[in-house]
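Session log. Operator J.P. requested a structure for one protein chain; no other inputs attached. Running the standard single-chain path with token output.
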Amino acid sequence: LRLAFGGHQTSSTAVFHHITNLPSLSERVQMLVFRLICRAQHLPADTLFTTVTSLCLQSTFRWPQLVRSSVLWTSLPASPAQRARIAANDTYITNHYQAYRQQQHDLVIYRASPPPPVLLSACRPTLGVDPILYLPMTIYERSRLVCWRMRWLPARPLGCSRCGHGHASRAHLLTCLSIASRLGVPADSQPNPLDFFLNTYLPLTKPVLRGARPLTEAQTHLVSFWPTLCLIMQEIDVICHPDEDFPLVALQPSGSRLLSWYGADVVT
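Structure written below.
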């Protein structure tokens, strides 16, 4: 993953895992073990695996230890009959695994000590691919949003070319560019006004808009302020890369691709 996004050998991959909805290696191991145990419950009695495991019930063998150490399996109802029915239900297995992953994520971002990771806490609290990765937009608009999520924008300490401040940090940019008022969100929005907008108003799926049906309040807010957000991200990019020679298309963000896909031509 670090090779994929150009990170150094110790860079964190937590945010990248989260916005792409990639399970960690430990979660993958839990799921593989869980599926193996579930499959073993319905193998015919004359199979080699069933015969061997029936002879390896003592604690000295690996199979009983594997079953006891499976968090997903031990969290199922204790009744053998119930477990057998669940093990045959692929939908339940998948949902049980997703609930486990969400629980593990919640334990990290809502913990009191040590404090949760700042960047991970700024992302959407629920698991799923972040809409900034698949909603229609130009490569420049998408790149700026991904860089903001990964904290590559700003990437290094530098002065603010807009106001002359000595350090254009994220906190400074949020204030200097009046992001809260420009996006129509409260100044004390958590985790910050920009991420609050991304987490609250970007749709997960294309809305079903029929005829002249009015937009909802959230949809209207997105349609009204999405071009402003694209402009804000362009301003941040320019401030953070004062020596960059941007192409003309990168300096003229409009957000039109998302608005056209979203159906902004309906009555608001």
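Operator note: The mean pLDDT is 85.
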